[in-house]
Amino acid sequence: MINMKTTHNILFQDSRNLKNIPSESVDLIVTSPPYPMIEMWDEMFSHQNPEIQDALANGDGNQAYALMHEILDSVWDEVFRVLKNDRFACINIGDATRKVRDDFCLYPNHARILNYLLKIGFSALPDILWRKQANTPNKFMGSGMLPAGAYVTLEHEYILIVRKGSKREFKTEDAKENRRESALFWEERNVWYSDVWTDIKGTEQKLPKPMSRLRSAAFPFELAYRLINMYSVKGDVILDPFLGTGTTTAAAMTSGRNSIGVEIDESFQNVLCPIAQDIVNFSNTYLQDRALRHLEFVKNRIQNEKPLKYTNAYYGFPVVTSQEQFILFNNLEAVEACRNNIFQVAYSTKPQTWNFEHASESLVGNKTKPHISPSQLSMLNAQ
Ligand SMILES: C[S@@+](CC[C@H](N)C(=O)[O-])C[C@H]1O[C@@H](n2cnc3c(N)ncnc32)[C@H](O)[C@@H]1O
What we know:
CATH class of the largest domain: Alpha Beta
Largest sheet: 10 strands, mixed
Number of domains: 2
Order of helices and strands: EEHHHEEEHEEHHEHHEHEHEEEEHH
Oligomer: single chain
Radius of gyration: 23 Å
CATH superfamily of the largest domain: Vaccinia Virus protein VP39
Strand content: 15-25%
Number of strands: 14
Bound molecules: S-adenosylmethionine
Strand order of the largest sheet: 8-6-7-3-2-9-10-1-14-13
CATH topology of the largest domain: Rossmann fold
Helix content: 25-40%
């Protein structure tokens, strides 16, 4: 690849109308809407439809819930329109528990959204349960030891995965090569494509500072990064119609994808611009950590005498399958703010020179039983 660049466009507007984004122009949606019936979003929803405030004031939870989803429905209509055929949408959503008047109940946001997505033409695919354990001391507050009066603690969210159309095809040789360079490691695949994610915490992410300040409603960088790398290839266009602090933009920049982020609240401007200043260092450190995690995996696999039959062509490190031979990380070189809220990122097209060669030499030619010498093992240990 020569002169790899990506463009990131941030639009401050209401996503219920995305008329400035052409139909069938987006490759992947990664987003998390405001959650209906979670109190922190009452004002945001009421601002978009004042009848919601009235319903809440009248203690009519079901009506408020229905009206809040009508707002989201209009956004899902636009999402369907702008998405290309044979592409995915990944929507992170949590259900809500709430007492309105004297009735405590669950508002099943994930089911309501999924039903609507199916109604407008998406196909459902297996979803991901994001398990966010709450270790707070009052986790079981209100639930005693006596039966028939307590409620289960809600400690998970969903990542709904739907598709418009059917399986995406990569027909040209260039498209196939780009797909191979966008591949995941075998050990990442085993965790990322599992239907329960337990290893992503809502906190403790190494985020650029401006993002970490507004973490309350933000999803973790790792969540957006994984979804982008699971469901798109380099050079694709990612859309987040509920951009918030810009996590999806940052993850798209790190992944070599283009992005469009739409956010109704202009006060997020103050958060988004500084991200551009930090993203080069942040991304390059993140990519290096990803490579080092792979080396750690290699080390353990060698110690356990499990096979690593192939070698990555760019880095020379061992990999488990032939599909990982051409994984290539593109380090970020520079970010330029070209126009108002449009950023361009330039990438290196050469592989970063990490010192992995010795680790792989010992494996080549010994495909059934990998061996590594003590000095090579100590080199891996030093990574
Ligand atoms: C759950 S937050 C998204 C957080 C985001 N994933 C992050 O990592 O920061 C939902 C965002 O949607 C925005 N929003 C709500 N209604 C909107 C609408 N109609 N159009 C565009 N943005 C909207 C809110 O202002 C809020 O920032």
